[in-house]
Design brief:
mainly alpha; 7 helices; DUF955 domain-containing protein
């Protein structure tokens, strides 16, 4: 299934932020998105619970992408979390979710809830996950086709459009 226009537009906007000099890498794109938003984005490798590859945590003045230590394709997870951010998948704060869903919580339950993706709960959760996956796939694909210098990004896009 091809990526939606919304996803394609989001990937184009992120690539437009690519540094004009030097290598265009995923981590440099994350930094560029943070700078464009005026909120730094920290990338941290972490021990997450089984089955959790990555998380996006929002703080008052910055964002953090947690990536499971030892993932063979951590860049795909990083691109997925970036997709949630740039596509505006807001969700609800973890503290709010805990207050609304528990009366009394043990430290184990609190730890578990902090390691859950609360940003994609609700009826549109599956759609948000698919959208983030589509974003990650397209961004990784395009990054693989970019030259090491951004100067010829127009040629890459023309090549994609016309084969």
């Amino acid at each position: 299934m091809p990526a939606s226009r919304r996803v394609t537009r989001a990937v184009n906007e992120v690539l437009d932020l690519a540094p004009k000099q030097g290598e265009v890498s995923l981590t440099r794109l994350v930094d560029a998105v943070g700078a464009n938003r005026g909120r730094s984005i920290e990338i941290t490798m972490a021990d997450l619970p089984p089955g959790v590859c990555g998380q996006w945590r929002q703080f008052a003045d910055h964002d953090v992408f947690l990536i499971q230590k030892g993932l063979p394709a951590w860049d795909r997870t990083l691109a997925h979390e970036l997709g949630h951010l740039v596509l505006g998948h807001e969700g609800i704060p973890v503290v709010q979710a805990a207050r609304e869903n528990t009366e009394m919580a043990s430290s184990e339950l609190i730890g578990y809830m902090l390691n859950q993706r609360t940003g994609c709960m609700g009826p549109s959760g599956e759609d948000a996950e698919q959208e983030a996956e589509d974003f990650a796939a397209l961004l990784i694909y395009r990054l693989g086709r970019l030259p090491s210098d951004r100067a010829s990004i127009v040629q890459v896009r023309l090549g994609e459009a016309f084969g």
